[in-house]
Write a structure and sequence with these properties.
Distance between the termini: 69 Å
Shape: globular
Strand content: 25-35%
Number of strands: 19
Structural class: alpha/beta
Radius of gyration: 20 Å
Largest sheet: 10 strands, mixed
Strand order of the largest sheet: 10-12-11-13-14-19-18-17-15-16
Order of helices and strands: EEEHEEEEHEHEHHEEHEHEHEHEEEEEH
Oligomer: single chain
Number of helices: 10
Helix content: 10-25%
């Protein structure tokens, strides 16, 4: 029998729907993503930690579950809200259905919701907390929503033990990937370019990272407020003093900026989707990018040794930074996008060139 449930927003609004996946009460930060493909990558992106994710594309689940496309071993989002979900997926790579996958990982699913109206509310009012219930809402539920915070996000998703991944052929470069909640495709992009990748956890020290003698340092994406990770910022500042070629993505971009004296702030409703336009300042060229973040680096807070390299064409926020006194650069978007546009994959090649240049000295 179909289990009815309600999504209750922090502002008191209620949306009715039906359950799939795990059936339980859950509270989280309500966000939306506009990506039209790649729902498996969205579900398994560590950056979704603590969030109730609304998928604006109306039909989800048509290709089923394909583990080789996952960005992490398990999903960490609180709940997943869709208009419709496909109960009979059809794809030659399919290894299961979405309902079974969500149940296995304890993720609440809600379908039959007017996701268009829900998204408009978030756009107009901003990100807010919400709770999924199978009973009438109470004052205690409203108090729980108002008190909810996404906490210890990086320490939760970036705590895997250190691992080393080698390319199939010749090892051309050795890279340390600092895991703040790294998407798997960052590792894949490095390995296919001949990099031996040592993935270190979020609590790695500068001393340990430098002891690995990497040719380059990769700063991963991740969830949460970057200002809550000031201990990581301090360790990163110490690493930067050694002038190692460094490439930061998403949260890594924000932490690198903080380590150099910049500031960050929370966006009204964030940038999440595979169709965000980013303008390269030096050329004026527009790239279509995949993004998933709720915080940005404040443009006019950059130190003298840094300059904005990309800006968001919609709202003018910082999408990239180039540093002048060290071989480091970073972007807010995801050049490793999968699924998503491949416009900015060339940035990984730029990272390779920077490492080769420094090693040739």
């Amino acid at each position: 029998m179909e289990q009815k449930a309600t999504l209750v927003l922090e502002n008191g609004m209620v949306f009715e729907g039906s359950c799939f996946g795990a059936v339980k009460e859950v509270v989280g930060e309500l966000v939306f993503t506009t990506a039209m493909t790649g729902y498996l990558e969205t579900l398994t992106d560590p950056s979704m930690y603590g969030q109730i994710v609304v998928q604006t594309f109306p039909l989800i689940g048509n290709v089923g579950v394909i583990p080789s496309d996952f960005e992490s071993e398990t999903p960490v989002l609180k709940a997943y809200i869709v208009r419709d979900w496909c109960q009979e997926p059809s794809n030659f790579r399919c290894e299961g259905d979405l309902d079974t996958f969500l149940k296995a990982h304890g993720v609440v699913g809600l379908y039959g919701v007017d996701t268009r109206a829900l998204t408009r509310i978030v756009r107009e009012s901003g990100v807010m907390n919400a709770k999924i219930l199978t009973r009438p809402v109470t004052d205690a539920d409203m108090a729980e929503m108002k008190a909810y915070r996404v906490e210890r996000a990086v320490r939760t998703v970036g705590n895997a033990p250190e691992t080393v991944v080698k390319p199939e052929g010749e090892i051309k470069r050795r890279v340390v990937l600092w895991n703040f909640g790294a998407k798997k495709n960052i590792e894949r992009e490095l390995v296919k370019r001949g990099c031996e990748v040592t993935v270190v956890p979020a609590d790695a020290t500068a001393e340990h990272i430098l002891s690995l003698k990497p040719d380059g340092l990769m700063l991963s994406n991740g969830p949460g407020d970057p200002m809550e990770e000031l201990d990581i910022v301090e360790q990163l500042r110490l690493v930067c003093e050694k002038k190692i070629p460094t490439f930061g993505i998403c949260l890594g971009h924000q932490l690198l900026a903080l380590s150099q004296g910049a500031k960050t702030e929370k966006l009204k409703y964030g940038h999440r989707g595979a169709n965000q336009p980013a303008v390269q300042v030096s050329t004026g060229r527009v790239f279509i990018t995949s993004q998933n973040h709720g915080y940005v680096v404040v443009n006019d807070s950059l130190p003298e040794n840094a300059a904005v390299s990309f800006i968001n064409a919609n709202d003018g926020t910082c999408e990239g930074i180039a540093y002048k006194d060290m071989p480091a650069f970073s972007v807010q978007f995801h050049p490793e996008a999968a699924a998503g546009p491949l416009d900015t994959a060339f940035l990984f090649d730029e990272f390779m060139e920077r490492m080769d240049k420094e090693n040739a000295r």
